[in-house]
Design goal:
The radius of gyration is 14 Å and the shape is globular. Helices cover 36% and strands 20% of the residues. The relative contact order is 0.25. It has one domain. It is built from four helices and seven strands; from the N terminus they run βββαβααβαββ.
Length: 138
Amino acid sequence: MDQPNKIIDQDGHALMKDFGAFYPTGHLVVAFNKASDANQVLQSLRGLGTAFADSLHVSAHEMERMAEHNLAEAGVIASMGTSLTTVQAFLDLARQGASFLILPTPDDATTQQAMDAVHRVPFMHAQRYHALAIEDMN
């Protein structure tokens, strides 16, 4: 990972959870086929100012470790929603070599800025985490 953060610890384990499942409320998680595309989006967003200063670039290996750990540790309640299905999708993409960005999106305007940058390159999957729902941004 590019930097220490509050979403994933140094061992690749998710810190932001809901009933034990990775659930970064107020963030957008985007998977890219190429790390260079993720880097291009990240640089573009960071050039917009401080709104994306806490954005993270997560490698396939790091996401795979986090997702495997998260799936093994999640509680029964987490399995009732879509959280674990989404984590499984991230794991599958990571095993295909995907590179990920985790972007702060506290409001619709920031989300639109992020998605405008994401749409400039090929991407595989995008999910925005709300307090009670995961929104498909594909």
